[in-house]
Amino acid sequence: xxxxxxxxxxxxxxxxxxxxxxxxxxxxxxxxxxxxxxxxxxxxxxxxxxxxxxxxxxxxxxxxxxxxxxxxxxxxxxxxxxxxxxxxxxxxxxxxxxxxxxxxxxxxxxxxxxxxxxxxxxxxxxxxxxxxxxxxxxxxxxxxxxxxxxxxxxxxxxxxxxxxxxxxxxxxxxxxxxxxxxxxxxxxxxxxxxxxxxxxxxxxxxxxxxxxxxxxxxxxxxxxxxxxxxxxxxxxxxxxxxxxxxxxxxxxxxxxxxxxxxxxxxxxxxxxxxxxxxxxxxxxxxxxxxxxxxxxxxxxxxxxxxxxxxxxxxxxxxxxxxxxxxxxxxxxxxxxxxxxxxxxxxxxxxxxxxxxxxx
Length: 359
Ligand code: 1CP
Prior knowledge:
alpha/beta, 48% helix, binds coproporphyrinogen I
């Protein structure tokens, strides 16, 4: 028996029956919340916020104080791994993340090593432990990492990008060097996620934010294969409880079958995919998480309810759905609209779980 009082998320990710569809929101802690902005100001800068477990715990819990969410997600960032590798991360308001020491030349890639998470990333594990204590098993805690391809993209570019020209040049000009980088990052992601799981993360999610920029063949060889290796290396059970793993590739709708075949428990979908069609394509292999357009949250409460209802209807009756946005919530959203969404999902989803019909 799971000790967590509200374990709807864990059950839904494992395609077990639920009374209603669980909902959480990508980037649910963050800039759209005034209390987050206050804590961030108090911390001074973003990395201090991440590296101070008490503050990371505080902002993790903030959205749960406001909304009836069915999960907490660790407050941290995907770029903690490259920071721990020595790339020197800074995140400034309005500028996004920047690395002081990007890696571009083969010699720089050769020199990288996977950090020991108990050492260089101990602050994340301390945050996980503290959050679990403070959560008091109210809802499950999700741990996370970036995918190797997405992390490598930032490591090579040195910052966010629209085109990712440098990393794509490496992909086409020196695939051996890129594979070497991806292998080191993959080792590190496995160690990092396993350390989060042992520290108390009850589910994990891999964010492949930039996988959708690749050709199908490049996606398979430079992103999916490495995520598959991660799943093969993850601890999947702790004290007899399965620790579900979710893979999210933004722009990956055309590859859902292949993603489902990696052995993940659930596939995250962005909003460009019809979730009913995706369900038919993956069958009973995995659960699905998603997939409302984040921009719907700028619309009126009535429209938000309508869109939430439409996604629940497209998914249809039965288990295996975790409601979420198709990507992170945007900073300009009014927090009251999030309450509308969460309440709508709770209310409207009940009928899809009554006398469940077979798929
Ligand atoms: O509640 C939560 O989900 C907060 C925890 C969280 C997570 C899961 C943060 C805090 N970042 C992330 C993941 C993350 N970080 C991703 C994958 C998910 C996605 O696609 O949105 C990516 C790509 C990043 C990289 C990153 N970090 C960006 C995007 C840069 C770009 O290329 O556009 C940004 C702006 C950051 C900083 C950051 N991380 C998190 C927050 C709240 C912020 C904003 C910093 C601030 O307070 O100003």
